């Protein structure tokens, strides 16, 4: 019956109470007199746990249900009457043999329960409780006439307002099953079924009963039901005396119910229809029954009770209380101040008799509150509050204060503000004086809801936090969670306080055994703390989430939480990090045991710097063996140099262009043996079959504890090409070929693991990741002098920790694209294919060894070494070439040179030169020879930087080797020089993917200073030897700038050679008699040579050697150079060398070493408009100054008697020679260049007589003699070179003249006789 009428307990029809108060909504609480009180915490176990999102509402569904359940199970107290019963409904079926007699027995049983002192529960509002008699008639089974007759008898006995006939089950069995009937009981019965199922699952529980109640209720129920009932009505489980026991039972339960079982129970409950025998008419009858009971029975009874209580208060208490108050005011003269709560006496144990006027006021206030007469209720509560405080009945006073505040809030129109201080006083009284936490909690729940409805979230949060204590973890958790929601719903949300209190709530949930709610709170707080830099807080939250998830068997969430602790830069101490790591490994191991055959999951440690991953193609560099030095090539131990990489690329392009006749193929791809983040990885790299592919993975340990990595291997995928497709490209793990077996890392160490793959067939290789065992090292045992806490060497460790196997993928992000407009305005990345090599067919493999290769040379020194070429592959190689940016540094020996007999001294000193013995008469005279340009390697279309290596038959067979001599020439500039050699070679069989291979070598040479050579060319004035004056003077300054760094004693100049198509050395002007030219340290000498024009100028080069000893050095062919042969004497050791100077311009000094160019000065920027008319091209001033060559012919001394004749006249001939192929206009000006006294002193007092300016025109190669006279007035030495000569080309429109300068002064001596 109770479940049948429960959906209709809420009435929305309007009614008036006493003709004054209008009631629009009435909610009636129906309960069985033997209502079974269940445990409060059962509800929390039934809540579904779906979401972990951040709730922004002011409350939560489980808290609302908790509050509702809490208020429903509140025990009825003697100081308040809201939970006391005001009426009793007696229900008897019409099928009973004697329904009237049954009503009589039930009425007597109710009277005995109410008025007997044996029963503490239930509590009754007034002694005269309303009894409402209901006759329940089953239409489908009972006789309707008999029911009507019984009902008539009931009306005569109890009146029409005290009884009712309810007919149900009008639906017959022959009705259609498809008729839709509402089911208002589903939401109530489903909730009850889940709660009952929880109680059944948990088993029976013990309720402590009152000591005075030791018998059961006997009310005509079945025996088995009576046996299951205890004296629940005599002692409530939430009674203050047993609060501690019940609270401990609430919080001590660690119960976890799966969500699936709850869903199954819900499906079962929701799938069963309720009220299947009821028709719509039956629904209306039940609804009409509730309305009749409410408006004709219950409300009139309450109205009557209010009038009776009001009359009793007026007759009993009104006069005396008023008189007492007046007398008190008269004698006191002023208002007595109220005492504070702390000053009041603890009178929580004070009890009023049921007939006390104070309780009658409280009853009247509660009745008015129940019928929504809040204004009258507030007045009564306020009056009762004063009386209770006067009597210091604090429990009663706190109850009055609580309800007065609620009544004030519920008054329509809000005539007065909400008295929050009433609630604060009530809470403090309940908690501190009465020690009743249940009532204090009820007060807090009500006040918090009122404050939240007024948007006073801060006050509500403070109120909720104030009630938290250690006596109940469940209550504290709920209140802390509500406080957190108050903080987040404020006008300015306090997010950090929300997160902090969610953490506190989660901790208390965990202590109360509510693991799911604890996990939810921590997850919501994590959303606030995540990414804010509070690493310690994040670590704590993630650690708790991991543990709670593991307890709930949510292993994936547990692994994820522990993973976040490890992947962030933790600031935890080493011991705490070790704890986190061990927890993670333990959870991870449990996860892997659930699916041992599944794919390997990702490991968070150690960090892998994907962009720093390097891939090397080929074998490791062979170490040096004795005097053999292997080519440096490239290895993973070398640092990447962008500038050097660009130089290697240019060298390779240069040799490829030479091989392909000056054209670089469109599919050319520079060879890259080592790929890293700086190399061009946009194309698929090429690897050769049967040659290793080495992958270097950069690890980093972010923790302060060592990590142990064992059994490292690569995870790869291979797709064969051009073979039978037996392999389907499935992922394979290579466990046999790896370089690093085990390693340990410390937090400040970044080791690299190098793993190798050996491809055995062609195809496409894709390297996916790294597989390894991650473990911890426990203990601090010293092994071979190494402390494990500092870091262990590979293979030397004590492994007694936990280990798990997992993987990490190698995912490399390519460079950001920034070429097109679309790429610049968006974020796009290009491909990085360094881990996706293409395995090509077999190719030859060359190794180069250098024998006796020097590391130090003198500037210009010539040293002989040997180079060994070895083919270590199974394929022959051909087209071996070497290219370098410094071809002048080296040259290879071959079998095509002309054999020249060695001199005895050259054989004795193991000289790199070939010398021949010369005739003693040829000293200081040049020895002539010639050579074609083909001998230089020129004229064949090849670049001088690309040198062909002479191989037998141009092929090097597999396993074969060959040694070739190499002559090295020390650079002319001192210091450390890096000289790059790029060896290029091809396979005899042409391949589509890889056309050639290269080998790199970088030679480091340290050069020391030796000689500094400077040379100048100027025209000779000696015209008598050559008719046309085609001769030059070459001045060579040689300085020994060596400071005896390497024990150098002295230098010997042995030979000077010239090499040109147009000029040659003829002889040395200042020849030495001892035939030896030595220069000690810091000594300097000057050589002068005469050079003449070659008669037969053609394509051949003319060599002229001026030998200072008795041995001639065979020519080392160099174009337009002068050579010096250098020898160092020290401890019977002779070093040989040569210097080269290139002379291009007459009168301009050339050097054997590069000169430092000074940076140009900053000048203002000039803007000009170019003229449209193009000026004719004219020779430069330097060219015009060399058009005419002049020479003065005169006697060196002239005798004259100044006593006989005062003027001395001397004839002088000026010889003019046109050195150009065009006609030249010449102007001769004999006037002195200046007339200042200083100049006259220098030139002497002489003058030219006769014509002082001449204008002539000289034909091509014409020589003209001009006769002049010089006049002197005294003896002395005079310079006749005071004339000026101007010249211009005859066909030039614009006059452009320049002065002609003499190469040396013209001195004459005038003597007096």
From TrEMBL:
Q: Which UniProt keywords apply?
A: Membrane, Transmembrane, Transmembrane helix
Q: Which residues form the TPPC8 C-terminal Ig-like domain?
A: 1187-1289
Organism of provenance: Chelonoidis abingdonii
What protein name applies here? Trafficking protein particle complex subunit 8
* Domain TPPC8 third Ig-like span(s) in chain numbering: 1002-1114
Q: Which Pfam families match?
A: Ig_TPPC8_1st (PF24545), Ig_TPPC8_2nd (PF24544), Ig_TPPC8_3rd (PF24546), Ig_TPPC8_C (PF24542), TRAPPC-Trs85 (PF12739)
Q: Which residues cross the membrane?
A: 20-38
All residue ranges annotated as the TPPC8 second Ig-like domain in the record? 859-999
